[in-house]
Amino acid sequence: TFVFSDDLETNTGWTGDIGPGAGQWDFPTAFPGGNSSNTGPSGPASGTTFAEYEASGSQDTASMVTPMIDLGTASSEAELSFNMHAYGVEIGTLNVGVGNSPTGPFTNEFSWTGQYQTAATDPWANIGVDLTAYLGQQIYIEFSYAAAGPSFYGDMAIDLVQVETCVSCPAPINFNLL
């Protein structure tokens, strides 16, 4: 069961450094997206838009945090999956952390540094992160990123963020066999 699924058509419920400026996460809506040339994806992995860190000369670290994800009734493994597009010679480091508050602290569970794709048209990478250690908790996932260079070639993008797990169901009451 997906206990959380967001293809990032809007930033509804997300918190952090979200806005239209350099060094922030934004939600471009038109092809080829809000990214600069020679960096970022040419289009979304899912739906009509995605979340993107807009470098444009900034090396500031920007954080984007999911709404609360309830793993309180999860009964076995849990996995975070998301699509990542890291194209540009100034791609920095994306850290993905998990915490019990939207303001952290966050325990880092995944990191990626440097370019993954070599063109804007390259397919997105699907990333999987084990969240089994967080079963029984209410969590928030932080995507934290900063571009590596002084120019605009460090636009990082994510799309289709999902958490999947098996959910415990209550036992039937007054069960009748027909």
Task: Report on the architecture of this protein.
The chain is an all-beta fold and 178 residues long. The protein has no helices and twelve strands. The protein has strands at 2-6, 15-16, 24-26, 51-54, 62-65, 69-70, 74-86, 93-99, 107-113, 125-130, 138-146, 156-167. The strands form two sheets. Strands 1, 3, 4, 7, 10 and 12 form a six-stranded antiparallel beta sheet that branches. Strands 2, 5, 6, 8, 9 and 11 form a six-stranded antiparallel beta sheet that branches. The radius of gyration is 18 Å and the shape is elongated. The two termini are 29 Å apart. The mean pLDDT is 90.
Number of helical elements: 0
Strand fraction equals 35-45%
What would you call the quaternary organization?
A: single chain
Structural class: mainly beta
Which outline best applies? elongated
Q: Strand count, sense and closure of the main sheet?
A: 6 strands, antiparallel
C-alpha end-to-end distance? 29 Å
Radius of gyration: 18 Å
Short key terms for the protein model shown above:
single chain, 178 residues, mainly beta, six-stranded antiparallel β-sheet, 0% helix
